[in-house]
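The following record pairs a protein chain with its ligand, zinc ion.
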Amino acid sequence: MTAEPTTTVDDFVAGLPKCELHLHIEGTLEPGLKFALAQRNGMELPYPDEAALRAAYDFDDLPGFLTVYYEGMTVLRTEQDFYDLAAAYAAKAHAQNVRYAEIFFDPQAHTARGVAFDTVIRGLTRALDDAERATGFQGRLVMCFLRDFQAEFAMATLVQALPHKEWIIGVGLDSDEAGNPPVKFRAVFARARAEGFRLTMHCDVDQKNSTEHIRQAIEEIGVDRIDHGVNALEDPALLALVRERGLGLTVCPISNAHVTDGMKAAEIRALLDAGVKVTVNSDDPAYFPGYVAENLAALRGPAALTDEDLVTLQRNAIEISWAAPAVRERFLAALATYRD
Ligand code: ADE
Ligand code: ZN
């Protein structure tokens, strides 16, 4: 069940310079924009109003969420739709003092229903470009392959991304993890690495084979970081591997609370204490209500996060990001000033 965001964001969290690394742009499609795009595209949603739509966001696991998520994004059809989606997120990010974000997008969820790859990429990049010039907020894209589709489709999608390396800086893997292990995409990720893309992958929380998937992602794919990955805590050898390699984990507390049991606050605290480069992110904030500020604020009490911990989380984020050195330095300087 989801509801409107209710978390109160304190002044320290509000003002903190932020870096977001786990956000699906299609997961920022808020009900108001969904209705507006449906109307513009001559589609009728099977709900009378936004409240009824939100009430239908009734899921308590990953497959249940994904059904709602894919259905919701069918209103995205034109370049302008993707522009409006990314522009709305960029405005929200700027309002929350997010300085830099690496933003997931799911091109196969659009090309599979007849929307051209270029339509998606042009809309998203034009919005990010405009936002950067207007506000300084910088967004770059991480292209996710849908793991419940065939590896051949992922490979063809990777080829479509090759002319867009200026914007697409990395590749990831998302969607339904059950029966779709990292090694299914071994060749795709090897090619992506050879083409110069950075690599990440979802290892969603409390999946049937979470620890084995984390092991595969690290040892057999050679990822640069892991999305979620909290279950690494269950296996001391795996945790040691994560720590030794300095692999970041992009965790999403409010999302976790909606698809598994709770925000995983104790686990996030333990990861921080173990010196793992853990970060806090928002995943799909239109569905798991809360952007990055609300996620930090919601986690603060349950994970006993001090101001220093909040700064550490942002330092971790920029350090494991794939931002250009100048962006990284500017961010770290802002963080250092903020703490004083
Ligand atoms: N697609 C969008 N959000 C996702 C998540 N949290 N896990 C897997 N696939 C997703
Ligand atoms: Zn995700």
